[in-house]
Amino acid sequence: MTDISLHHGISVHRIGAMILRYWYLLLSSWPRLLELLYWPALQVITWGFLQLYIAENASFFARAGGTLIGAVILWDILFRGQLGFSISFLEEMWARNLGNLMMSPLKPIEFLLSLMVMSLIRLAIGVIPMTLLALFLFHFNVYALGLPLIAFFCNLIFTSWSVGIFVSGLVLRNGLGAESIVWTLMFAIMPLACIYYPVSVLPAWLQYVAWTLPPTYVFEGMRALLIENTFRADLMLDALAINAALLVASFGAFLALLRSARKHGSLLSSGE
Amino acid sequence: MTENDDASSRPTVADRSLSAAIAVDHLVKVYKQTRAVDDISFSLPRGSITGLLGGNGAGKTTTIAMIMGLVLPTSGRVQVLGHRMPEESAAVLGRMNFESPYVDMPMRLTVRQNLTVFGRLYAVNNLAGRIAELADDLDLTDFIDRANGKLSAGQKTRVALAKALINQPELLLLDEPTASLDPDTADWVRAHLERYRRDNNATILLASHNMLEVERLCDRVIIMKRGRIEDDDTPEAIMARYNRTTLEEVFLDVARGRVNGAKEATR
């Protein structure tokens, strides 16, 4: 087998091997596959009907058609992107397979890249049907956002990977006892990311905190697009810059936690 | 890389370590207050089978984990196939492999899928052919398309061994390779390991509680107790030194602190 290596010895073959592993895993369990579709569909249906109700009774929301349902879809990209990353990682912990991987030629960066690809695949399985449901049930076409949607998507997925990398490092270091962080950390961001309301609603001091989070820029940008028909490229560039810093910081934290796990022998006992 | 920076300024391991499969030099591992491994040194020549013996908590698994790079030493150094671990692990991880009760093969994947994934990770040439060869050698054919989680303990051990051999490693680290196997399957696994070593001039380091297994397979035995090396020689020389006829008796002498008396009797 000819090994295709990129810079610094990153092997496409090894990344491909890991993606193949997660693909086999995904196909081996139809309940897990169904679950990928189930929650996003439930979200969009609930919030879609709420949006319809509010739009009929409030003139502002009638004007700002789609802000709620658009926010739900973008929030799901952020949340499911991180879950898609972290669940693939947790599968290795649950299967007690981490030792096999750490002893193989697989490098940490290759492992993380394969998890990123898997988060995209799992996201596509869950979110594409969700957007189609929004289109057919509520006549909200998220794809009509056009090129800005790509900017929104990229910024959200970069944030989700940063959070995914960081919490994976925490689980690696602390074992499955830290698993709950995987499921809950993103919800800590939720009120500050101003998904369903503008940043101006927050107290002045909290607004400073909110603006440190890339998703805040995306949701403000979405509202600007849907309500004022304005694409705020400045917001997207700011978010991209913070995301770049977050990705570097999370990768550094992952390597530090991996080293700490090696120091404390956590890789041998990856249970609770 | 060790926890202590000053370790890097230690004298280099002797030149012989470059030709050794494994060279361990003054290795120490401390977990909080516990010295799990306490200043051990040994060197294993290529093509040898060495048994690492000791009771629970003797430091065998920690030693093997440091050789693999899964655990960082507090001080001391490890060289594997001429490369320092874990700094130069990229140069050797593809040439070694391991099997341990502390890790599993993924349960929901079939045997073939698992071997395919690991074969790709190790960049095995002609992977389909290698899997077919292993399936034939290790008698996996009947269940190669069954999920790993649905196999018996003996079948799982053979699959784990197939994974450990997928890249035809020059160095094989085995932690309790026949634990929980019936005598027939255990004997079959030992025969396969002997054959693999002979055919490939591979080096094998195995930790085991099974003294008969060690007597049969190993041309050298390292006995550990409380993190230190208690004895290190051929099985025959050790049994003679302790005036015992089996390694099991030696093991009990060491475990129960009858070491000095037994050694004294041979003087």
From TrEMBL, chain A:
Residues 31-261 form the ABC transmembrane type-2 domain. PROSITE patterns: ABC_TM2. This is Transport permease protein. The chain crosses the membrane at residues 36-54, 60-79, 111-138, 150-172, 181-199, 239-258. Signal peptide: none annotated. It is found in: Cell inner membrane; Membrane. It comes from the Bacteria. One of its GO terms (molecular function) is ABC-type transporter activity. Coiled coil: none annotated. Belongs to the ABC-2 integral membrane protein family. Its main location: membrane. Keywords: Cell membrane, Membrane, Transmembrane, Transmembrane helix, Transport. It is a multi-pass membrane protein. One of its GO terms (cellular component) is plasma membrane. InterPro entries: ABC-2_transporter, ABC2_TM, ABC2_TM_bact-type.
From TrEMBL, chain B:
Pfam families: ABC_tran. Signal peptide: none annotated. Keywords: ATP-binding, Nodulation, Nucleotide-binding, Transport. SUPFAM superfamilies: P-loop containing nucleoside triphosphate hydrolases (SSF52540). Residues 22-251 form the ABC transporter domain. Belongs to the ABC transporter superfamily. Involved in beta-(1-->2)glucan export. Transmembrane domains (TMD) form a pore in the inner membrane and the ATP-binding domain (NBD) is responsible for energy generation. This is ABC transporter ATP-binding protein. The lineage of its organism: Bacteria, Pseudomonadati, Pseudomonadota, Alphaproteobacteria, Hyphomicrobiales.
